[in-house]
Design brief:
single chain; alpha/beta; Nucleotidyltransferase, domain 5
Amino acid sequence: MEASSPTRILAIDYGSRRMGLAVSDPLGITAQGLETLERKNKRADFARLEKTVREYGVGEIVLGYPLRMTGEEGTQSQKVAAFAERLREHFQVPVHLWDERLTSAEANRILREAELSIKKRAQAVDRMAAVLILQAFLQARSNRAAAT
């Protein structure tokens, strides 16, 4: 069996109005934020995601999974799980749910420290949250690989 070339991982911070997007480098080491996707409808959203998947050669997707601070699922968790299933069916790639508790708060803190205006911070927070989700996923995968 021939070794396949490395594929990138797409991270999605899923929200009702916007989706923050980030993609890994081909080796799965770094995360780069992409343009935030303003939600329109399922067809338009999937068309934009499909363009991103093709453009970057995405072979896996990581989806921020919003758990309550207690670790329990809530209404938004169920919406994200249903979206993950639609992604699996549509793209036929592995889709991982990643605990994103505190990701948006951390993204806001980083952007505040960068002294961005409130308007610019609002535009960047979803993308930054996707970057943080992807970085945490990549770090955990690297740690698991190093432990074996």
